[in-house]
């Protein structure tokens, strides 16, 4: 199945790029929950919309990563969803549009899928069928490495019953490249990590983001 190029994609990308810059400002003033942004969106809404996970192994990737839950499909990342010391497994083939060859590795773990070739929702449906507990999708093509892409529903009728989120391309690229370099099939993660009261300077952001 080929992914249709959706005009909304570009618009969303632009909005989210702006969004991302705003979030950066907000995070810099960490804790200012009443601060309102120019577009009228409150800090709390932005931070509450995104969640974080951390990689605890390999050591080269031991940072905290911000992800954006899918907008209108998938299960919520609510209080009952919490995975600890679980593998984040890049699916093979990497676009995750068909049942993975590494099904045994994906089953019971978090699937790591690249954007492209089919819709976000299709990737989630495929990952769920493979037994994944959640899906993290990232664009590791350089064109969108610095911002979040909103994952919106397509016309697929099937439901997604596991949580799904988007990881900024730059992080996706570094995770993928590092795992390949180390010849590793997975990283170990905790998802989510609660950073509500963590001041920004204490957040363990990946150094390549330049924050
Ligand atoms: C979390 O979401 C799942 C899936 O929708 C649901 O079954 C569960 O009851 C929810 N838990 C809470 C605490 O809201
Ligand atoms: C994070 O922790 C704070 C303080 O313990 C709590 O109020 C908040 O609900 C937690 N957030 C999530 C998403 O678990």
UniProtKB/TrEMBL annotation:
Domain PA: 87-173
InterPro entries xrefs: PA_dom_sf, PA_domain
Subcellular locations according to the entry: Secreted
Presence of keyword Transmembrane helix: yes
GO cellular component, one term: extracellular region
TM annotation in the entry: 12-32
Chief place of localization: secreted
Keyword presence, Iron-sulfur: no
Keywords from the named record: Glycoprotein, Membrane, Secreted, Signal, Transmembrane, Transmembrane helix
Pfam families, per database record: PA
Name of the protein this chain belongs to: PA domain-containing protein
Organism from which the protein derives: Exocentrus adspersus
């Amino acid at each position: 199945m080929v992914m249709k190029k959706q005009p909304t994609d570009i618009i969303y990308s632009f909005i989210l790029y702006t969004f991302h810059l705003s979030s950066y400002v907000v995070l810099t003033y960490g804790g200012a929950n009443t601060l309102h942004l120019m577009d009228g969106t409150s800090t709390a809404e932005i931070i509450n919309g995104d969640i974080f996970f951390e990689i605890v192994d390999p050591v080269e990737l031991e940072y905290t990563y911000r992800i954006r839950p899918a907008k209108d499909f998938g299960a919520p990342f609510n209080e009952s969803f919490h995975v600890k010391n679980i593998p984040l497994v890049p699916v093979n083939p990497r676009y995750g549009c068909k049942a993975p060859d590494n099904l045994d590795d994906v089953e019971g773990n978090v699937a790591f899928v690249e954007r492209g070739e089919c819709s976000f929702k299709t990737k989630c449906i495929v990952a769920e069928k493979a037994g994944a507990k959640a899906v993290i999708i990232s664009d590791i093509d350089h064109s969108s490495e610095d911002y979040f892409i909103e994952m919106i529903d397509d016309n697929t009728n099937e439901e997604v019953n596991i949580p799904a989120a988007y990881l900024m391309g730059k992080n996706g690229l570094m995770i993928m490249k590092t795992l390949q370099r180390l010849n590793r099939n997975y990283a170990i993660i905790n998802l989510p990590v609660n950073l509500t009261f963590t001041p920004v300077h204490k957040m363990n952001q990946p150094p390549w983001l330049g924050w």
